[in-house]
């Protein structure tokens, strides 16, 4: 396992252009979401009753907010903005995936050229796989929300609800992991022009190795993230702020490492 992770680390170092593209994309996306949320939250905070007002004023604030949401069209523009952002992300993400995965397969070509070439050749195929992944991930949420809501109606406190909902949430997390890994290997298969049956056969045959690699990379990433976050909290200041911003680039590299590690395993099973 460690040998495959080491090979994946080396492959990730060979993809600086793809890592930078992912970094820029996530940075722009984060800034856009921040500005949107800030435009909604800050005006509400200005109207929120302060400590000097009575409890009845706070209750009146929440009652008015509920009335505005339920009885007026105040929320409609924000819903449309959210839908547009979701559709934009669903369009851009598979394009970037196509460039990243194509770059892994054609390391001998110029970095920028192979990234763009991947988008040109596999945009539609990767968009279809991304749509399938999104559908498979969102579909069980309806049942999950219904189960949690039903459990909430029969539980006396939040701790009891947490004990009942924890297995459902844990199962859903495992399900999302399986779907993401399956779609990742389907994308590998697209680059080799392999049928879905062959890809699933390879995945099922190496399910233990795939899981161990994913868990290993996740643990390393979690440890690094915890260390950086803890350091920023202990030594708060401008330097800590710069460190957190620089860590975004490191985080993108770690995400690339997660992909290249699985690609290293895939290559040993196909070549």
TrEMBL record:
UniProt keyword terms in alphabetical order: Membrane, Transmembrane, Transmembrane helix
Origin superkingdom: Bacteria
Listed transmembrane segments: 12-34, 78-102, 122-145, 165-186, 207-228, 234-254
Keyword Transmembrane helix: yes
Name under which the protein is recorded: DUF4013 domain-containing protein
Organism from which the protein derives: Paenibacillus xerothermodurans
């Amino acid at each position: 396992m460690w040998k495959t992770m080491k090979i994946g680390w080396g492959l990730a170092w060979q993809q600086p252009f793809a890592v930078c593209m992912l970094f820029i994309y996530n940075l722009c996306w984060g800034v856009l979401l921040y500005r949107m949320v800030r435009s909604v939250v800050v005006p509400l905070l200005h109207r929120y009753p302060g400590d000097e007002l009575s409890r009845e004023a706070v209750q009146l604030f929440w009652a008015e907010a509920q009335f505005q949401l339920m009885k007026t069209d105040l929320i409609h523009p924000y819903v449309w903005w959210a839908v547009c952002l979701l559709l934009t992300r669903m369009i851009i993400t598979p394009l970037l995936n196509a460039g990243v995965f194509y770059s892994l397969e054609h390391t001998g070509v110029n970095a920028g050229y192979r990234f763009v070439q991947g988008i040109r050749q596999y945009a539609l195929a990767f968009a279809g796989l991304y749509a399938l992944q999104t559908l498979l991930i969102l579909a069980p949420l309806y049942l999950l929300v219904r189960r949690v809501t039903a459990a909430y109606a029969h539980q006396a406190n939040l701790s009891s609800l947490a004990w009942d909902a924890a297995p459902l949430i844990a199962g859903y997390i495992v399900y999302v992991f399986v779907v993401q890994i399956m779609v990742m290997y389907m994308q590998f298969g697209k680059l080799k022009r392999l049928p879905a049956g062959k890809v699933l056969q390879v995945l099922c045959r190496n399910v233990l190795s795939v899981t161990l690699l994913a868990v290993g990379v996740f643990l390393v990433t979690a440890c690094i993230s915890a260390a950086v976050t803890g350091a920023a909290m202990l030594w708060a200041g401008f330097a800590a702020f710069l460190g957190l911003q620089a860590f975004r680039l490191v985080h993108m590299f770690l995400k690339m490492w997660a992909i290249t590690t699985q690609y290293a395993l895939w290559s040993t099973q196909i070549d």
